[in-house]
Structure formats: C-alpha cells, structure tokens
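fyi for ur records
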Amino acid sequence: MADKLRWGVLSTANIALKKVIPAMQKSRLTTIAAIASRDMAKAREAAKALDIPTAYSSYEELLADPNIDAIYNPLPNQFHVPWTIKAAEAGKHVLCEKPLSLTVVEAETLLAVRARTGVKIGEAFMIRSYPQWLRLRELLDQRRIGELRSIAGFFSYFNNDPANIRNQVEAGGGALMDIGCYLIHASRYAFGEQPTRVVGLIDRDPKMHIDRLTSAILDFPGGQSIFTCSTQMVPYQRIQFFGTKGRIEIEIPFNAPPDRPTRLFIDATGDLFGGGITTEDFPVCDQYTLQGDAFSKAVLEDTEVPVSVEDAIGNMAVIEAVFKSGVSGQWETPSR
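which gave:
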C-alpha cells in the first residue's frame, strides 16, 4: 500500500488555491501532484505559487495522468457531477466540493458510476473530520445533554456581486445551496436520520434571483431543527443543540480558523446566566488538512469515506424540499 495518495486538482478555484491545497500539502497521507486549468498560464502560475510539480492546460490531460490517484473537484456547482463522472471513469477517486450536485436525480447517477468504476466518491463537508464535530457526536452518543430534541443554527455572509458565481442561479448559487447545506447536513448528522417534512421561507434577490435569505424548520422523528442562512447579512455563524438535560454550542462551527484554537460549550445546568457552562478547547488544526487525510485513509485502507454519495443524496433531498416549500408555502416531504 502506498504511503500517500497522489492528488490532482481540477481548476484554480479560490477555495482550492487559498484553503484546500495549502492544507492538504500538510497532510500525512496526501500529496498534491498536479493542477489543471483551461488557461495554461493560470495553471502554471498556481503550480509555481504552491510548489505543485505538474500543470495541465485541460482537465482531460489531468484525468489521463496515470500518476494521479485521486481528484479534488472544486469546480462551479453545475460541473460537480459531470466532471466527477469523468474522473471516476478515468479510474480516479473523487472528493467533490459541496453540494455534490444540483438535484437529487443528478446525484443518484453517481451511484451507478461508483459501482461500475469501483472508485471512492465523497462530498467535501470538511466539518465531518474536524475535532469539535467528532466531539459533538461523542457527547450526543453519551447523552451528555439527555435526549437531543432541538437544533438552532445561523450562517451568513455578505456578497451582492452579480459576477460572483455564488450569486448566479444557473450555477447553483444562493444561500441554501452554498451555506444552508451545512446547517441541513449538521442537523441530519446530529439526529442521525432524515427529516420527515420541512417548511421553508425564501427571500430572493430581485435582480439576481438567488435566495439571499432562507429560513427553514426540519421536522425529524427525534425532534426539530430551525435555521436561517443568508448571503446578504452580517457575517456570522453559530449552532446550538438542545437536549432534555443540557445544551451544546459550537462557537465557529463551519469556518473553523486554522490558526487559533476553537471552542465548544456544554451547558449541563440550564443556568440562564451561564454559570453552568463548561468549555472544551480544541488545539489549532486545519479542517481541510484533516479532510484530506480522512478521505485518503479511506482510499488507502479501502474503508468508507466520511461523507458518502448516499449521504449527499439525503442532504440534497432536504434542500430540494425546502426550495419546494418556499414556493408552495406548505410542508414538503424530502424525496429520499
């Protein structure tokens, strides 16, 4: 078995250049061996800046490289599934940025592709490899706050640039697809099940038509989750988990900083003035480094990836239902 997985990166997307590649270059089990862009100058510039050995002027050239084991796909949302399929058919394992697809039906096409090619395909929800989220799972399983009954989350930033891909409907832009997906994923992860019905309220930008403010209620067999996400509000993120005996709060749940410790709060007394809160600190680490190692480990040891295609399909089913409810004004049932 190889010591490290050799990765190629599809495109010079900002998230790849600024966050994922530098982080994965620190991983124990990964090496970034190549990067591709349709603009050779961009590929060469990125390769030089990040000390990547090989640059390609097309995605096809990268996929044809026999020295590449896995592909990181940070392309715009509408290209996630098409290029994940091409990578898989080239025999490469694929870690694809979230959301994995634009629709449930599109995501389901990956099941047959995965079965036919035998490669690993995963969705890049980096929180699933991060210590504070793994600790949350332990605390919930230990019933530290009793029975989980409610989740409340908020995630926002401000970006009203029409040229930004996150503000383009055809590219799968908008608050729910870009950041609401985290709140849905976190809720499904905590409850360990799918919501039976959802209701959503959506405010769309009058010019760009993306959802700029979306709120939803997810009704699970075990309880309820409420959240708000926005692309045109003050930057903020927080999530809380309420149980019959206590509460857990994650301070910076989704964009955990790579240069300072993070904190999780456990309130086991219900003291409204915070006297019963216990703080757990997590050492400095980079969630993208850990994500790279976790996916690479799954490939090298032939185990399950942190976020499977099936999990991604479940998340997209809830996203679709929230969008549908935003139009109907009624409770809607996720299709999966």
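The CA atoms of residues 49 and 318 lie 39 Å apart. thats all i got for now
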